[in-house]
Amino acid sequence: LALGRDLRRAVEQREITLHYQPQLDIAGDRVVGMEALARWSRPGYGPVPPDVFVPLAEELGLMPALTELVVGEALRQCAEWRALGHDLRISVNITASGLLDPGLVEGLSGRLAGLGLPAEAVVLEITESTLMSDPARAREVIEQLRLLGVDVSVDDFGTGYSSLAYLRRLPVTEVKLDRAFVMGMLEDPIGPDAAIVRAASEMARALGLRVVAEGVEDVVLLGTLLRTGCALAQGYGIARPSPAGHALAAALAHE
Ligand code: G
Ligand code: G
Ligand code: MN
Ligand code: NA
């Protein structure tokens, strides 16, 4: 397939780039982190969304190289920001195969040392379905990551089948409430999605987990989210994902 051939070339030539989306500490009114999001502009066609090229990379066996590229560049960028005095965390999305790759923990550990980046600055975002693909192994790797000091976040929380009871047994440190619920809350502040946001935040907090609301398209939600127990917010209402320089400017503009 031509698309696959072009993707292979893009990964080999390192033509996959990263955009960054700020994460706001609502109470402190300060950007404290960035989520790295992979971008590919296919020559002659234009942007191909990660929802398309990430699964394709998986299918084509390109995931180890893509993960390498994304993790390497995201950590390098974070180290650069921190060297400039910006105390930011970096969140990186990782698939099931990325999490279960036997070289992950050692690779990360080497990169952190090489960059002089504290492990606490790094958050790996893992979806619920990833956690469920091989729960025993996932748990082992997450334990190793926590020993290293890297944070682990459950992305798109609420869309999968993992219950909070199940989460309790995993040493994850954060959940990201799926944007569908957060956007529903904006539509109807007393409707069912708002109830889900409240209930999930409350339970996550009871488990000692940091809660991030994603899909915050309007800052009017921030007060409600904070009262609900979400410490952090991410979404178009705060800043859109953008190239590193622009994302940093957006983060600083917030101060
Ligand atoms: O950036 P955007 O909102 O288009 O992302 C769409 C989906 O692709 C999201 O679920 C996001 O987590 C995923 N995604 C974006 N970048 C990466 C990446 O570098 N690695 C993985 N595994 N998924 C990514
Ligand atoms: O699944 P994950 O959380 O990694 O997905 C991140 C995706 O969400 C990115 O593709 C990003 O572009 C998108 N996104 C970020 N903020 C918003 C928002 O406020 N609204 C919508 N609709 N999408 C958003
Ligand atoms: Mn994510
Ligand atoms: Na998400």
Automatic annotation (TrEMBL):
Residues 1-255 form the EAL domain. This is Diguanylate cyclase/phosphodiesterase. It comes from Motilibacter rhizosphaerae. The chain holds residues 485 to 739 of 751 of the full protein.
